[in-house]
Amino acid sequence: MTDVRRAFKETLTTEKLYAWHHMLLQGRDDITVGAWRTHEDPMQIVSGAVDRRRVHYEAPPSHRVPREMERFIAWYNETAPGGKNEIKRSPVRAAIAHLYFESIHPFEDGNGRIGRALAEIALSQGLGQPVLLSLSKAIESDKNAYYLALEHASLSNEVTAWINYFVKTVLQAQTESEQQIVFTLKKTKLFDRFKGELNERQSTVVHRMLEEGPKGFQGGMNARKYVSLTKTSKATATRDMQDLLAKGVFSLLGDAGGRSTAYQVNL
Questions:
Q1: Which pLDDT does position 259 carry in this prediction?
Q2: Residue 163: pLDDT band by 50, 70, 90 thresholds?
Q3: Of 40, 110, 116, 215, which one has the greatest count of Cβ atoms within 10 A?
Protein backbone atom coordinates (compact mmCIF):
# COMPACT_ATOMS: atom_id res chain seq x y z
CA MET A 1 0.00 0.00 0.00
CA THR A 2 1.87 3.03 -1.33
CA ASP A 3 -0.30 5.48 0.58
CA VAL A 4 0.66 3.81 3.86
CA ARG A 5 4.38 4.41 3.31
CA ARG A 6 3.82 7.94 2.05
CA ALA A 7 1.61 8.97 4.96
CA PHE A 8 3.45 7.36 7.88
CA LYS A 9 3.96 10.72 9.63
CA GLU A 10 0.27 11.61 9.58
CA THR A 11 -2.03 11.25 12.58
CA LEU A 12 -4.19 8.15 12.37
CA THR A 13 -7.91 8.83 11.90
CA THR A 14 -11.07 6.88 11.23
CA GLU A 15 -11.27 8.50 7.80
CA LYS A 16 -7.72 7.34 6.96
CA LEU A 17 -8.55 3.74 7.91
CA TYR A 18 -11.75 3.89 5.85
CA ALA A 19 -9.76 5.18 2.87
CA TRP A 20 -7.21 2.35 3.14
CA HIS A 21 -9.98 -0.21 3.40
CA HIS A 22 -11.62 1.21 0.30
CA MET A 23 -8.32 1.15 -1.62
CA LEU A 24 -7.69 -2.43 -0.53
CA LEU A 25 -11.12 -3.88 -1.28
CA GLN A 26 -12.60 -1.61 -3.93
CA GLY A 27 -14.81 -3.56 -6.30
CA ARG A 28 -16.08 -5.93 -3.62
CA ASP A 29 -19.89 -5.85 -3.48
CA ASP A 30 -20.36 -8.73 -1.05
CA ILE A 31 -19.16 -6.80 2.00
CA THR A 32 -19.28 -3.29 3.42
CA VAL A 33 -16.21 -1.41 2.14
CA GLY A 34 -14.79 1.72 3.76
CA ALA A 35 -16.76 1.41 7.01
CA TRP A 36 -16.78 -0.60 10.23
CA ARG A 37 -18.60 -3.90 10.21
CA THR A 38 -22.24 -3.79 11.31
CA HIS A 39 -23.47 -7.36 10.91
CA GLU A 40 -24.70 -9.30 13.93
CA ASP A 41 -22.82 -12.52 13.12
CA PRO A 42 -19.79 -13.28 15.34
CA MET A 43 -16.51 -12.01 13.87
CA GLN A 44 -13.98 -14.79 14.30
CA ILE A 45 -10.32 -15.23 13.43
CA VAL A 46 -10.06 -18.72 11.98
CA SER A 47 -7.61 -20.92 10.07
CA GLY A 48 -7.68 -24.28 8.34
CA ALA A 49 -9.82 -25.88 5.65
CA VAL A 50 -13.56 -25.27 5.58
CA ASP A 51 -14.35 -28.63 7.16
CA ARG A 52 -11.56 -28.31 9.75
CA ARG A 53 -11.80 -24.68 10.84
CA ARG A 54 -10.09 -23.66 14.04
CA VAL A 55 -11.41 -20.58 15.86
CA HIS A 56 -8.49 -18.65 17.35
CA TYR A 57 -10.41 -15.67 18.62
CA GLU A 58 -13.86 -14.09 18.59
CA ALA A 59 -13.86 -10.29 18.32
CA PRO A 60 -16.22 -7.91 20.12
CA PRO A 61 -19.73 -7.63 18.61
CA SER A 62 -20.22 -5.04 15.86
CA HIS A 63 -22.11 -2.55 18.03
CA ARG A 64 -18.95 -2.09 20.15
CA VAL A 65 -16.60 -1.49 17.23
CA PRO A 66 -16.99 2.33 16.89
CA ARG A 67 -16.17 2.91 20.55
CA GLU A 68 -13.34 0.34 20.59
CA MET A 69 -11.78 1.89 17.47
CA GLU A 70 -12.07 5.35 18.95
CA ARG A 71 -10.00 4.11 21.90
CA PHE A 72 -7.53 2.31 19.62
CA ILE A 73 -6.93 5.36 17.41
CA ALA A 74 -6.39 7.56 20.47
CA TRP A 75 -3.93 5.02 21.91
CA TYR A 76 -2.10 4.69 18.58
CA ASN A 77 -1.58 8.43 18.25
CA GLU A 78 -0.68 8.96 21.91
CA THR A 79 2.00 6.24 21.84
CA ALA A 80 3.65 7.58 18.65
CA PRO A 81 7.00 9.43 18.85
CA GLY A 82 6.36 12.73 20.62
CA GLY A 83 2.98 11.56 21.95
CA LYS A 84 2.03 11.97 25.58
CA ASN A 85 2.29 8.21 26.18
CA GLU A 86 5.12 7.52 23.75
CA ILE A 87 6.39 3.95 23.56
CA LYS A 88 10.10 4.37 22.93
CA ARG A 89 10.77 1.02 21.29
CA SER A 90 8.95 1.01 17.98
CA PRO A 91 9.01 -2.80 17.47
CA VAL A 92 7.20 -3.20 20.80
CA ARG A 93 4.65 -0.55 19.84
CA ALA A 94 4.20 -2.21 16.42
CA ALA A 95 3.57 -5.59 18.06
CA ILE A 96 0.98 -4.18 20.47
CA ALA A 97 -0.69 -2.10 17.75
CA HIS A 98 -1.13 -5.12 15.51
CA LEU A 99 -2.52 -7.28 18.32
CA TYR A 100 -4.82 -4.49 19.53
CA PHE A 101 -6.23 -3.87 16.05
CA GLU A 102 -6.71 -7.57 15.26
CA SER A 103 -8.47 -8.05 18.61
CA ILE A 104 -11.11 -5.51 17.57
CA HIS A 105 -11.25 -6.80 13.97
CA PRO A 106 -13.26 -3.75 12.88
CA PHE A 107 -13.79 -4.56 9.19
CA GLU A 108 -15.63 -7.40 7.50
CA ASP A 109 -12.47 -8.31 5.57
CA GLY A 110 -8.93 -7.03 5.14
CA ASN A 111 -8.17 -6.72 8.87
CA GLY A 112 -4.93 -8.68 8.63
CA ARG A 113 -3.49 -6.55 5.84
CA ILE A 114 -4.45 -3.26 7.45
CA GLY A 115 -3.23 -4.48 10.83
CA ARG A 116 0.15 -5.29 9.30
CA ALA A 117 0.20 -1.88 7.62
CA LEU A 118 -0.38 -0.22 11.00
CA ALA A 119 2.55 -2.18 12.43
CA GLU A 120 4.78 -1.08 9.54
CA ILE A 121 3.74 2.55 10.10
CA ALA A 122 4.63 2.23 13.79
CA LEU A 123 8.08 0.99 12.78
CA SER A 124 8.44 3.80 10.25
CA GLN A 125 7.46 6.42 12.81
CA GLY A 126 10.10 5.09 15.18
CA LEU A 127 12.79 5.27 12.48
CA GLY A 128 11.60 8.58 11.07
CA GLN A 129 11.46 7.12 7.55
CA PRO A 130 9.53 4.40 5.68
CA VAL A 131 10.68 0.87 6.51
CA LEU A 132 11.71 -1.28 3.56
CA LEU A 133 10.32 -4.62 4.63
CA SER A 134 7.26 -6.79 4.21
CA LEU A 135 5.67 -8.10 7.39
CA SER A 136 3.05 -9.87 5.29
CA LYS A 137 5.66 -12.01 3.55
CA ALA A 138 7.40 -12.90 6.82
CA ILE A 139 4.11 -13.81 8.51
CA GLU A 140 2.89 -15.83 5.52
CA SER A 141 6.07 -17.95 5.63
CA ASP A 142 4.74 -19.55 8.85
CA LYS A 143 1.05 -18.68 9.15
CA ASN A 144 0.42 -21.37 11.78
CA ALA A 145 2.94 -19.77 14.16
CA TYR A 146 1.23 -16.42 13.63
CA TYR A 147 -2.23 -17.74 14.44
CA LEU A 148 -1.01 -19.65 17.49
CA ALA A 149 0.79 -16.57 18.86
CA LEU A 150 -2.30 -14.45 18.18
CA GLU A 151 -4.54 -17.01 19.87
CA HIS A 152 -2.39 -17.23 23.00
CA ALA A 153 -2.12 -13.44 23.25
CA SER A 154 -5.89 -13.02 23.04
CA LEU A 155 -6.48 -15.19 26.11
CA SER A 156 -5.16 -12.63 28.60
CA ASN A 157 -3.43 -9.27 28.97
CA GLU A 158 -0.05 -11.01 29.24
CA VAL A 159 1.46 -10.33 25.80
CA THR A 160 5.18 -10.88 26.38
CA ALA A 161 5.23 -14.04 24.26
CA TRP A 162 3.38 -12.23 21.48
CA ILE A 163 5.86 -9.34 21.52
CA ASN A 164 8.77 -11.79 21.37
CA TYR A 165 7.17 -13.55 18.40
CA PHE A 166 6.39 -10.31 16.59
CA VAL A 167 9.82 -8.73 17.09
CA LYS A 168 11.46 -11.90 15.72
CA THR A 169 9.15 -11.68 12.72
CA VAL A 170 10.15 -8.03 12.17
CA LEU A 171 13.82 -9.06 12.25
CA GLN A 172 13.10 -11.85 9.77
CA ALA A 173 11.31 -9.41 7.47
CA GLN A 174 14.25 -6.99 7.69
CA THR A 175 16.75 -9.73 6.83
CA GLU A 176 14.67 -10.86 3.85
CA SER A 177 14.38 -7.26 2.67
CA GLU A 178 18.15 -6.77 2.81
CA GLN A 179 18.66 -10.03 0.90
CA GLN A 180 16.20 -8.88 -1.77
CA ILE A 181 17.96 -5.52 -2.17
CA VAL A 182 21.38 -7.18 -2.54
CA PHE A 183 19.90 -9.71 -4.98
CA THR A 184 18.32 -6.96 -7.11
CA LEU A 185 21.60 -5.04 -7.30
CA LYS A 186 23.50 -8.18 -8.35
CA LYS A 187 20.84 -9.01 -10.95
CA THR A 188 21.05 -5.50 -12.42
CA LYS A 189 24.86 -5.72 -12.64
CA LEU A 190 24.60 -9.12 -14.34
CA PHE A 191 22.31 -7.86 -17.09
CA ASP A 192 24.42 -4.72 -17.56
CA ARG A 193 27.57 -6.81 -17.89
CA PHE A 194 26.16 -9.22 -20.48
CA LYS A 195 23.91 -6.80 -22.34
CA GLY A 196 23.66 -7.89 -25.99
CA GLU A 197 25.66 -11.09 -25.43
CA LEU A 198 22.78 -13.51 -24.77
CA ASN A 199 20.52 -14.97 -27.42
CA GLU A 200 16.76 -14.91 -26.96
CA ARG A 201 16.64 -18.43 -25.51
CA GLN A 202 19.38 -17.72 -23.00
CA SER A 203 17.81 -14.44 -21.96
CA THR A 204 14.44 -16.14 -21.41
CA VAL A 205 15.97 -18.84 -19.22
CA VAL A 206 18.09 -16.47 -17.12
CA HIS A 207 15.13 -14.15 -16.52
CA ARG A 208 12.95 -17.12 -15.51
CA MET A 209 15.57 -18.41 -13.07
CA LEU A 210 15.96 -15.01 -11.45
CA GLU A 211 12.21 -14.69 -10.94
CA GLU A 212 12.67 -17.07 -7.99
CA GLY A 213 14.54 -14.39 -6.06
CA PRO A 214 17.42 -14.80 -3.60
CA LYS A 215 16.57 -18.43 -2.82
CA GLY A 216 17.42 -19.40 -6.38
CA PHE A 217 15.86 -21.64 -8.99
CA GLN A 218 14.95 -24.90 -7.26
CA GLY A 219 17.13 -27.76 -8.42
CA GLY A 220 19.06 -25.54 -10.82
CA MET A 221 18.74 -25.49 -14.61
CA ASN A 222 19.31 -28.65 -16.63
CA ALA A 223 18.77 -29.70 -20.24
CA ARG A 224 15.26 -31.01 -19.65
CA LYS A 225 14.06 -27.79 -18.04
CA TYR A 226 15.82 -25.67 -20.67
CA VAL A 227 14.09 -27.56 -23.48
CA SER A 228 10.73 -27.14 -21.74
CA LEU A 229 11.18 -23.38 -21.31
CA THR A 230 12.55 -22.59 -24.78
CA LYS A 231 10.93 -25.32 -26.93
CA THR A 232 14.29 -26.07 -28.48
CA SER A 233 16.25 -29.30 -29.00
CA LYS A 234 18.33 -30.95 -26.32
CA ALA A 235 21.49 -30.37 -28.35
CA THR A 236 20.78 -26.65 -28.63
CA ALA A 237 19.91 -26.48 -24.93
CA THR A 238 23.21 -28.13 -24.00
CA ARG A 239 25.15 -25.78 -26.29
CA ASP A 240 23.38 -22.71 -24.88
CA MET A 241 24.06 -23.72 -21.28
CA GLN A 242 27.72 -24.50 -21.96
CA ASP A 243 28.05 -21.06 -23.53
CA LEU A 244 26.45 -19.46 -20.46
CA LEU A 245 28.92 -21.38 -18.28
CA ALA A 246 31.87 -20.24 -20.40
CA LYS A 247 30.73 -16.61 -20.26
CA GLY A 248 30.37 -16.77 -16.48
CA VAL A 249 26.59 -16.27 -16.44
CA PHE A 250 26.15 -19.82 -15.13
CA SER A 251 28.11 -21.78 -12.58
CA LEU A 252 27.82 -25.48 -11.82
CA LEU A 253 25.36 -26.39 -9.08
CA GLY A 254 27.11 -28.79 -6.72
CA ASP A 255 29.45 -31.49 -8.02
CA ALA A 256 26.97 -33.09 -10.39
CA GLY A 257 28.20 -33.99 -13.84
CA GLY A 258 27.16 -35.86 -16.97
CA ARG A 259 23.44 -36.41 -17.41
CA SER A 260 22.70 -34.86 -14.01
CA THR A 261 24.55 -31.60 -14.68
CA ALA A 262 22.68 -28.60 -13.30
CA TYR A 263 23.50 -24.90 -13.33
CA GLN A 264 22.74 -21.84 -11.22
CA VAL A 265 22.96 -18.17 -12.15
CA ASN A 266 26.35 -16.85 -11.12
CA LEU A 267 25.51 -13.66 -9.22
A1: 58
A2: very high
A3: 116
Average pLDDT score, the chain: 91
Going by pLDDT thresholds of 50, 70 and 90, the confidence category of residue 1 is low
Cβ-Cβ contacts under 8 Å for 124 (sequence gap 6 or more):
5, 8, 130, 131
- Within a domain: residue 24? yes
Of the candidates 194, 168, 191, 211, the residue with the CA atom closest to the CA atom of residue 247: 194
On the CB side of 257, how many CA atoms lie within 13 Å of its CA? 1
Residues ≥6 apart with Cβ < 8 Å to 109: 25, 28, 31
Percent of the chain, pLDDT > 90? 69
Residue 144 φ then ψ, to 5°? -65, -40
Where would I find the H helices in the chain?
2-6, 14-25, 65-78, 90-104, 111-127, 135-140, 143-153, 160-193, 200-210, 223-230, 234-247
Looking at residue 107, what is its pLDDT? 96
Domain span holding position 234: 194-265
Residue 187 domain flag: no
pLDDT of the residue at 42: 77
Q: Is the pLDDT of residue 156 over 90?
A: no
Give the chain's domain count: 2
Tell me whether residue 58 is in a domain. yes
217 and 89 housed in the same domain: no
Same domain, 12 and 144: yes
Based on the domain organization, do 123 and 219 belong to the same domain? no
Residue 246 belongs to some domain of the structure: yes
Q: Is the same domain home to 136 and 27?
A: yes
